[in-house]
Amino acid sequence: MANDTKYRQLRLDTTKRQLQIYLDKIDSLYIARPDMRKIVLEKEEEYQINFEQLQKAERLKVEAKIIEKSVRKR
């Protein structure tokens, strides 16, 4: 119900014409592709995994710099 209300509010905001066109397109896709929910959930999971990997890579870079600095001080 909450998402339905949010969607309806977006549809009522006539200053957001481009958004409404986009929502119409998504509605059409949803009707044409019954498996759309599965596809969206899979894509979300893929993005989440990528994000976590990027975070890990950034942490490792920071750790490597710390180790490099400590080795140079020896």
Helix and strand layout, with pairings?
Layout: H1 2-12, H2 17-32, H3 36-73
Level of helix content?
Answer: over 70%
Characterize the biggest β-sheet.
none
Give the total of beta strands: 0
Q: How many helices? A: 3
Descriptive notes:
This protein has 74 residues and is mostly helical. It has three helices and no strands.
Summarize the structure.
By secondary structure, the protein is mainly α. 88% of the residues lie in helices and 0% in strands.
List its salient traits.
mainly alpha, 3 helices
